[in-house]
Amino acid sequence: MEKIQFMRLWDLYGKLLTPTQQEITDMYFNLDLTVSEIAEQKGISRQGVSECLALCKKQLAEYDDKLKHDRLLAEGDLFTSFMMTDVGRWAEKFLSLHPEYAADIAELTAILDKDYSEEIAAGLDKLGK
């Protein structure tokens, strides 16, 4: 399992790991420490850290095999991406056929191109996420 996939699963299921596993994986991902650096800080062997990370990878993959959250998120991301692409293409085609609606198409395009980061953050705050 590549590191990016491991990180995605860790983001989804990391709280299901033991406190020690959470600490080691946090050092690995968030502090970007090497296995050697983690081993030195934790006072354990490099092999112990490597085994812990390998076990975490295995556990996270098993959680995802059962719960399928990663797949559901990926499906949602792809659905949104395909839909946005289709709407953008439709807007371009519609504009070429109906230039009199240029202002409306420009407004639609602005909506499609808008960065919703702040609205998403506010919505997640309201949900307590």
Question: What features would you describe in this structure?
Answer:
There is one protein chain. The mean pLDDT is 92. This protein is mostly helical. It folds into 2 domains: 3-67, Winged helix-like DNA-binding domain superfamily/Winged helix DNA-binding domain (Arc Repressor Mutant, subunit A), CATH 1.10.10.10; 71-127. The protein contains 7 helices and no strands.
Quick overview of this protein structure:
By secondary structure, this protein is mostly helical. The protein has helices spanning 3-13, 19-29, 35-42, 46-67, 69-97, 102-113, 117-127. Helix 1 (3-13) crosses helix 4 (46-67), helix 3 packs across helix 4 and helix 5 runs antiparallel to helix 6 (102-113).
Task: Report the CATH topology name of the largest domain.
Answer: Arc Repressor Mutant, subunit A
Domain count: 2
User: What is the N-to-C order of secondary-structure elements (H for helix, E for strand)?
Assistant: HHHHHHH
Apparent shape? elongated
Rounded to an integer, what's the Rg over CA atoms? 22 Å
Mean of all residue-level pLDDT scores? 92
Counting helices, strands and paired strands, the structural category is mainly alpha
- Beta content: under 5%
β-strand number: 0
- Main sheet: strands, sense, barrel: none
